[in-house]
Amino acid sequence: MFSPSDVKNIFALFPPQETSDFIPQFTLSSRGHGFVTLQFAQAQFRGRVTKADFATQHDIWLNSLDALLADHDGEVLSIDGYVCKRSYESAISEAISSRVDQALKNVQTTSIKSEDLPNNPSIWFISHTLNQVLEKENLTSQFHIQESNGTISCTPKQLIESKRDATLNSLQSGALAYLDLQKFASDYPDFFSTYKDAVSHFQNLPNITVLDTFAVSKPWTTQIQQDCIRILEQEGSTLDVTEVIGSRLPASIVETVSSQSKDAIISALSQKPPGQRIIRVGHLILTETRRDGAIDELATYATQDAHSQWQTLLNDPTTTNNTTTAPDPKYSRDRIRNLIPPSGLVQRLLLATKPVDKALEETFYNTLAPLETANEEDFATYWSDRCLARYNIYSTGLTGVSDPKVHDQLAQLLAAYAKKELIPDTLAKARAQRLVQSRRTRKNVARLSGVLETVEGVAGIATALDKFNKKQGVEAPGETTLVAAKKVMVEDMLRRLQKQKASDGPVLFLTLVVVLFARQYDGVVYATGKFAPKLLKQLKGTLDKVQYEKVEAWKEAAKTNALTPEDRAEMVKMAEAGGD
Questions:
Q1: Residues in CB range of 393: below 8 A, 6 or more apart
Q2: Which domain of life does the protein's organism represent (predicted)?
Q3: Of 28, 381, 553, 580, most Cβ neighbours within 10 A?
């Protein structure tokens, strides 16, 4: 151990410091128990070590170590807190330089790892030395350096550029379908500072389309279009372009490329003969012939559904009453869709289009129209015979009643009969025969029934019937029809006369008077028994004295049901003769 006195004596032996660059050749141990010379320090460096570790190992003050390392000969280097011998740094530099030169010569990437170099230098030391080598040889601008997972990759920019150009050539020729521009920009940062720079560059290149974040090859899409045309011409009449593209493009741009390809295919085949031209249907393209065939199939379904709904209405038991809730036949796209078989993709896509849906609706109602028309014609015949003709004949019969009071009373009676019996009964029987089935008839009948609840008098009823007939398209019975109808009504009353029992005296007498009145005047009077004497009084001038007296006698006998078989026979005979 040195005492302070020893130290003074030792330093007294040193030559005086005459210049500022004086560097001591040894230093004292920090613990004061020995010397550390520059030669000793140099001998300790076999590779590289941190100054802190070296100072600790040899009990040297860091400041003293820095002083030793400042020796002019530069045999020991201090680099970012580490120390090493110049010979070691030179060996690492030579190894790295050799690898760099070889990479540049062969135009290939060289990867440098610690285990590939003497004494396993750390990555930071390799990176530091590599940068010095590149700067020294003026190669910095010719390499792209990348560090990852303990490895430093040195790639000649010539190689990167050739790969970039090869990729672009593949894209422009169609050998490559697309490029992810974000990844491409990150792969070649020396050429594209930002993603936007890459997009701008590709937008100006021929045979390339930029979609979203991708560059798509036009020759590649053209080949897809040619493949689609071949499939359409050789293998079938329907095609999904997205299926042809498949997974060869990113999902986010498949639909756009597919849509553009469809337009191109349609344009390319636009000069084909009718039927062979290509059209779009949903996500498919197909020939016009295939489209027309699918529409014909859909029209068949629409026709089928119209018949089905009509038959369902005919079979619905509620349609025989006036409170039916049976729905009217109505076109429904959902019903048509349910008729399409699982394999009918084209039909389903066509059904979703407005023009086809409209055409099918027209087909449905065109199919329904003749069914409804035939039903309406049957209703019109029945309505005219059972209601209109009768009401017209009864209304005409009122004109022959000369007594104003009796006329008005009979008019009220007829109005009540028409509202409560004639019209409702006729409609009920028409429903029972399935004649009130068409939408128009059901609507007009419902409206007429509502009007009859509030209308009053024969005039009001006549007006209501006229409006109903006009909306329903029913023509008023002609003169010939009315004459024939009156004849039938009279003959019907004559048959009832012949079948009446002795106890039906009042009915016999009323029927006789009504028949005699009908023989003398237009129409037929609708009357009840109490009006028979009043009508007989008007007939007095049309019957001879003997006939009138007979009728008067029958009137009295009828009141007490005292008519004899001979009386009834003569009454029938007089009615058939019409009073002659």
A1: 482, 485, 486, 489, 523, 524
A2: Eukaryota
A3: 28
Structure tokens at 273: 């003969």
Query: What is the overall mean pLDDT for the chain?
Result: 85
Give CA angle at 179 (175, 181), nearest 5°: 155
The reply to whether the predicted model has a pTM over 0.90 is: no
Taking only the tens place, the pLDDT of each residue in 52-64 is 666 566 656 555 5
Spatial distance between the Cα atoms of 548 and 545, rounded to a whole number of angstroms? 5
**Residue 467's closest CA among 455, 483, 485, 478?**
455
pLDDT score of 69 = 58
- For residues 134-155, give the mean pLDDT: 84
Cβ 518 vs Cβ 507: under 8 Å: no
User: Which residues, listed in sequence order, are joined to residue 138 by a DSSP beta bridge?
Assistant: none
Separation between Cα atoms, residue 63 and residue 55, nearest integer Å: 10
Helices (H), 473-564: 479-499, 505-520, 532-539, 545-559
**Residue-wise pLDDT tens digits, 273-304:** 888 888 889 889 999 999 999 999 999 999 99
Fold classified for 87-159: Ribosomal Protein S8; Chain: A, domain 1 (3.30.1370)
Angle at 377 between CA 421 and CA 302, to 5 degrees: 120
Place of tokens 């209703």: 379
Give percent above pLDDT 90 in the chain: 54
Query: Computed from CA positions of residues 471, 474, 475, 477, in that sequence, does the dihedral angle turn out positive or negative?
Result: negative
Predicted confidence (pLDDT) per residue in 175-195, tens digit = 999 999 999 998 888 788 899
Q: In angstroms, rounded to a whole number, what is the distance separating the alpha carbons of residues 534 and 245? A: 98
Residue 236, CA distances (Å) to 231, 285, 539 in order: 6, 11, 90
**CA distances from residue 393 to 396, 477, 490 in whole angstroms, order as listed:** 5, 10, 11
> Side by side, which strands form the sheet with 48-50?
48-50, 82-85, 76-79
Tell me the residue length of the chain.
580
Domain with CATH 3.30.1370 in the chain: 87-159
Does residue 146 surpass a pLDDT of 90? Answer: no
pLDDT band at 159 (very low <50, low <70, confident <90, very high): confident
Contact indicator for 164, 181 with CB cutoff of 8 Å: no
Q: Is 215 in a helix, a strand, or coil?
A: strand
**What are the percentages of helix, strand and coil residues in the chain, rounded to 5?**
65, 10, 25
Burial track 106-123 (b if 16+ CB lie within 10 A, e otherwise): eeeebebeeeebeeebee
Q: Please, is 71 exposed, middle or buried when counting C-beta atoms within 10 Å of its C-beta (0-12, 13-18, 19+)? A: middle
Does residue 119 contact residue 46 with C-beta atoms inside 8 Å? Answer: yes
What is the per-residue burial (b if ≥16 Cβ within 10 Å, else e) of 432-461?
Answer: eebbbbbebbbebbeebeebbeebeebeeb
What is residue 79's predicted lDDT score, i.e. its pLDDT? Answer: 61
